[in-house]
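pls design
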C-alpha cells in the first residue's frame, strides 16, 4: 500500500493526518516539503489530482502571501506556482497521495476518504477531538 504525505512536522493538522495514516497500519513515504519541495510538474499534478485550483492550494496564514501580492486576482497560475516553489511554505498541507486519490487533508480526517486500509483502533486528535472509536469507525460522519 503506497501512501505519500507532503508533511510539515510543525503543523498540527499534518501531524494528525500522519498519525491517522499510521493508525491504519501504514507507514507512508514522508516528504517534508519545506526541505524537499516538489518540482513544478509534480506540484501541478498534485493540485490537479486533488481537484483544486492553484489558488485553492495556496496557504496564506504564516506565509509571505500578502508581501508577495499573491491576493491580486491578476496573478496567474504559473506565477502562483513559481511563488510556491520559491517559498514552499505557501503550499497548503498536508497533501496525501494514495492509490485511491490525492487530497488536501484539511481537516485531517479527509485522509480517511482515500486510505486503502481501515483504522486499527481509536484515534483522538492532538486537540482532544475524538475521530475514530475503539471499533475503528468514525465518531462523526
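designed seq:
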Amino acid at each position: 500500500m503506497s501512501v505519500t504525505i507532503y508533511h510539515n512536522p510543525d503543523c498540527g493538522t499534518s501531524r494528525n493526518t500522519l498519525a491517522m495514516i499510521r493508525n491504519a497500519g501504514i507507514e507512508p513515504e514522508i516528504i517534508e516539503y519545506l526541505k524537499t519541495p516538489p518540482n513544478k510538474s509534480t506540484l501541478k499534478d498534485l493540485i490537479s489530482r486533488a481537484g483544486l485550483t492553484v489558488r485553492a492550494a495556496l496557504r496564506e496564514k504564516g506565509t509571505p502571501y500578502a508581501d508577495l501580492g499573491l491576493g491580486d486576482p491578476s496573478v496567474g497560475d504559473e506565477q502562483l506556482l513559481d511563488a510556491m516553489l520559491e517559498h514552499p511554505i505557501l503550499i497548503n498541507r498536508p497533501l496525501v497521495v494514495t492509490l485511491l486519490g490525492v487530497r488536501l487533508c484539511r481537516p485531517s480526517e479527509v485522509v480517511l476518504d482515500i486510505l486503502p486500509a481501515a483504522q486499527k483502533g481509536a484515534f483522538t486528535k492532538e486537540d482532544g477531538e475524538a475521530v475514530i472509536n475503539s471499533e475503528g469507525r468514525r465518531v462523526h460522519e
